[in-house]
Design a protein that fits this description.
Blueprint lengths: L2 H24 L3 H31 L4 H14 L2 H11 L2 H6 L1 H32 L5
Length: about 140
């Protein structure tokens, strides 16, 4: 598993998330915000596919008890994020964003905060465990 690539994906995701957050605060129009939302979504969906389908299962099967139990705990605590993110993405098309900007802004900031927390926890705890157990390239 290439943890360096997962970290690079986190960097891109956090950059797109910051751009979206700034756009929300600046009150940019619906189309620019929707475009940023899609750029973020493409990165997040690709990243989650690798993490949730490959990385987490690999970590959970590790012979290192600390790595396996931490990955299992993280999966339990954060496993629903992909569904939440997909639901947010489906709910907020351009028309719905335009019709209820305040609700979109509030929900988007919440999903961005959850995304940042997940990324931070993985970077600080899970990825170092992967490296220490030899599961990371």
């Amino acid at each position: 598993m290439n943890v360096a690539e997962l970290r690079a994906q986190h960097e891109r995701i956090m950059r797109f998330a910051a751009e979206l957050h700034r756009a929300l605060d600046a009150g940019m129009g619906v189309q620019p915000v929707a475009g940023l939302r899609w750029r973020l979504a493409r990165e997040v969906i690709a990243h989650l596919a690798v993490e949730d389908r490959l990385f987490y299962p690999l970590m959970i099967r590790s012979s290192d008890h600390a790595a396996a139990s931490t990955a299992a705990r993280f999966q339990t605590e954060m496993g629903g994020f992909a569904d939440d993110f997909t639901a947010w993405l489906a709910r907020w098309n351009e028309l719905n964003i335009a019709q209820d900007w305040d609700a979109f802004r509030t929900e988007t900031k919440a999903i961005l905060a959850t995304l940042a927390d997940r990324s931070r926890r993985e970077e600080e705890t899970l990825y170092p465990l992967a490296g220490a157990t030899g599961l990371a390239a």
